[in-house]
Design a protein that fits this description.
The two termini are 13 Å apart. Helix content is 24%, strand content 28%. It has one domain. The strands form 2 sheets. A 4-stranded antiparallel sheet has the order 2-3-5-4. The radius of gyration is 15 Å and the shape is elongated. β2 and β3 form a beta hairpin. The protein has 123 residues and is α+β, with helices and mostly antiparallel strands.
Length: 123
């Protein structure tokens, strides 16, 4: 079944010059292996097609149930020189959370996923 990362994770983003920095943190420990498997450098690069023009680096932080991504050549030169609306990458975390991945049906039995689905916050 396909669901949005929003149902499994929360995220933060910002900038490192011309590179966007996105931290993706699993809501539960058991979600971490799924995001680690499904949210690859290639998947993130594809999700940000037309925005990310450089390589994508991924760093694993298993003790935090998190992945950190650096999207190079994404911010039009960075906050002080870019004409982009979001030259510091603040909205990219929300954009990554809209990415969909396939998950086993058992994940939908999670109280946190079910609560999000029932609240109407996840579409």
């Amino acid at each position: 079944m396909k669901i949005q990362l929003l149902d499994l994770c929360h995220a933060r983003s910002g900038d490192k010059g011309d590179a966007a920095n996105i931290g993706l943190i699993a809501r539960e420990e058991r979600f971490y292996p799924i995001i680690k498997e499904k949210v690859t450098r290639a998947a993130v690069k594809k999700h940000f097609k037309g925005i990310c023009f450089g390589p994508v680096e991924r760093f694993e932080l298993p003790n935090l149930w998190a992945l950190n991504f650096l999207l190079h050549n994404t911010l039009g030169g960075g906050g002080t020189v870019s004409l982009k609306q979001d030259a510091q990458g603040k909205t990219l975390a929300a954009a990554l959370l809209r990415m969909t991945i396939d998950v086993p049906p058992s994940i939908l039995n999670s109280p946190k996923v079910a609560a999000r689905k029932n609240s109407g916050r996840s579409k």
